């Protein structure tokens, strides 16, 4: 087989590995993303528990980069501190390394089973959960198949005359080897794929043992940089976590490379098998970075916040860039895309308000109360700008599809702004009353309200995603969940009345707060669900009236 054919086969096998990894990750995100994010947010209590949560979350998503993006959004939204975010990401790096260890087992027998089960699950039902389960199983089958193909594709490289010359040179020039591995990991956007490729080449005795540690260190440095590059245009506070990971993990790999020059640690100490040695070196590096880096996560976070966040605090509102570019009004489709981007800003701020308001119910914080009020003012301003911008688009010659998009976007913006008003005007007032009167909900009542709040937050995310993906299945699911929230309200009302009849003192004191909060959540949920109506109506999936 010619050298070109060998590299084409190897490139195809690596491409399948990257695609399969993405397929599994997106399947898990779509099926269980909201649940996992909520569990992760609740688990981030301190550095140790955050690192443990990051470890398991990275195993679930098979990607530390995905965890980095999620945690960055949590920090930007004020859900967790930068210190906790960096600790979570250090744990996620170890979790990603653990995934590599699991995938190194001989699981070839599972390939046909997973492919068959994935196909059956995907075709068995139109239900979203079944189809995503099928996607996950099929993706795992493809992932294992790609690993076998990488091994088979690299077999002819044993007889290559050029490759040993290149590797022998790199064995003497560790800095170049380190940089090439970092570039490869960045290009793949996956440390899992990079390390598995190195392990496969080592299994074929193509990688000289002295080259293993520099390459693995370089791959880890490149993987740390991925998150920082992907968030370079995000809010300044969101960039602290991935940059903190670069500072700790990146510096750790550079220190380890310097120590390797001085001490020359042989990879055979980790395993006699070269492929396993690659994986165990990778695990050891990430475990060491976690152990030694965790105590410094607070110092790194404060330093980066001082560089990035503090200057922005004074001028953030004055320098906020709007996507509503007047120059694009002559191009209606581009102008509508600009308006959509600005509506997503309103969505993000509304979601922050929705999460924070229940934190105020649980523990009063005047600063958070002021921030919610400020967010509502910001939403009002952006909503006004969007409304005027869409009106100016409508003055141009629009085709039927663009006119419908314009109208639907305006309707969605109005609904989201109304939801924000309910939070800032109604629910914030109730939270303040609860604090001023020192009122406490009954344990059962608070559990009911919390369950309802979690459901509304999930539906809010579904509704906001519809503005981008226009997924019919998501729209159907959102409207179905409206009925679920209505049932939660009905059940809670009945149980609340039952507690009043039985003389529950806490329920008696918090009765009006409980019922009003419940109805506020129901109204907010209805506003979010109505965002799906235009899409369903276009597809002929919506009744014109509920009357028989």
Automatic annotation (TrEMBL):
Its main location: membrane. NCBIfam families: Na_Pi_symport. Keywords: Cell membrane, Membrane, Transmembrane, Transmembrane helix. It is found in: Cell membrane. It comes from Ciceribacter sichuanensis. The chain crosses the membrane at residues 6-24, 44-61, 67-90, 102-122, 134-151, 174-199, 211-231, 243-265, 277-301. This is Na/Pi cotransporter family protein. Pfam families: Na_Pi_cotrans. It is a multi-pass membrane protein. The lineage of its organism: Bacteria, Pseudomonadati, Pseudomonadota, Alphaproteobacteria, Hyphomicrobiales.
């Amino acid at each position: 087989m010619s050298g070109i054919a060998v590299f084409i086969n190897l490139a195809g096998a690596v491409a399948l590995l990257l695609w399969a990894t993405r397929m599994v990750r997106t399947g898990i995100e779509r099926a269980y993303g909201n649940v996992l994010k909520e569990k992760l947010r609740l688990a981030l209590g301190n550095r140790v528990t955050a690192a443990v949560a990051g470890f398991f979350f990275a195993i679930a998503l098979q990607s530390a980069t995905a965890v980095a993006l999620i945690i960055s959004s949590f920090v930007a939204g004020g859900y967790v501190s930068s210190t906790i975010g960096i600790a979570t990401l250090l744990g996620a790096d170890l979790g990603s390394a653990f995934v590599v260890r699991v995938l190194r087992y001989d699981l070839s027998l599972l390939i046909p089973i997973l492919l068959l089960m994935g196909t059956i699950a995907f075709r068995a039902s139109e239900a979203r959960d079944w189809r995503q389960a099928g996607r996950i199983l099929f993706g795992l089958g493809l992932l294992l198949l790609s690993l076998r193909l990488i091994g088979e594709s690299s077999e002819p490289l044993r007889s290559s005359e050029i490759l040993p010359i290149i590797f022998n040179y790199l064995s003497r020039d560790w800095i170049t080897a380190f940089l090439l591995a970092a570039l490869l990991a960045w290009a793949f956007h996956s440390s899992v794929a990079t390390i598995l490729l190195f392990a496969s080449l080592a299994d074929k005795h193509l990688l000289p043992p002295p080259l293993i540690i520099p390459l693995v260190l370089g791959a880890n440095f490149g993987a740390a940089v991925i998150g920082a590059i992907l968030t370079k245009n995000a809010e300044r506070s969101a960039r602290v976590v991935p940059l903190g990971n670069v500072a700790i993990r990146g510096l750790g790999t550079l220190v380890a490379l310097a120590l390797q020059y001085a001490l020359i640690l042989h990879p055979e100490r980790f395993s006699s098998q070269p492929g396993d040695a690659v994986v165990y070196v990778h695990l050891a590096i990430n475990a060491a970075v976690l152990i030694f880096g965790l105590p410094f996560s607070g110092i790194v976070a404060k330093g980066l916040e001082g560089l990035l966040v503090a200057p922005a605090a004074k001028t953030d509102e004055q320098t906020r860039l709007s996507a509503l570019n007047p120059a694009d009004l002559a191009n209606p489709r581009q102008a509508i895309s600009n308006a959509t981007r600005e509506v997503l800003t309103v969505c993000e701020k509304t979601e922050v308000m929705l999460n924070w308001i229940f934190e105020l119910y649980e523990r009063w914080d005047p600063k958070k109360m002021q921030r919610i009020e400020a967010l509502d003012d910001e939403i009002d301003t952006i909503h006004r700008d969007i409304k005027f911008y869409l009106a100016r688009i409508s003055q141009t010659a629009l085709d039927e599809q663009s006119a419908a998009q314009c109208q639907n976007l305006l309707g969605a913006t109005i609904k989201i702004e109304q939801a924000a008003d309910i939070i800032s005007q109604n629910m914030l007032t109730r939270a303040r009353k609860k604090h001023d009167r020192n009122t406490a909900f009954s344990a059962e009542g608070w559990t009911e309200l919390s369950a309802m709040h979690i459901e509304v937050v999930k539906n809010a995310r579904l509704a906001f995603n519809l503005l981008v993906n226009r997924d019919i299945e998501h729209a159907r699911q959102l409207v179905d969940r409206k009925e679920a929230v209505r049932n939660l309200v009905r059940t809670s009302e009945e149980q609340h009345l039952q507690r009043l009849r039985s003389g529950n003192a806490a329920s008696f004191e918090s009765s009006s707060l409980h019922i009003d909060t419940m109805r506020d959540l129901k109204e907010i949920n209805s506003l979010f669900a109505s965002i799906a109506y235009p899409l369903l109506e276009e597809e002929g999936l919506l009744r014109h009236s509920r009357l028989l």
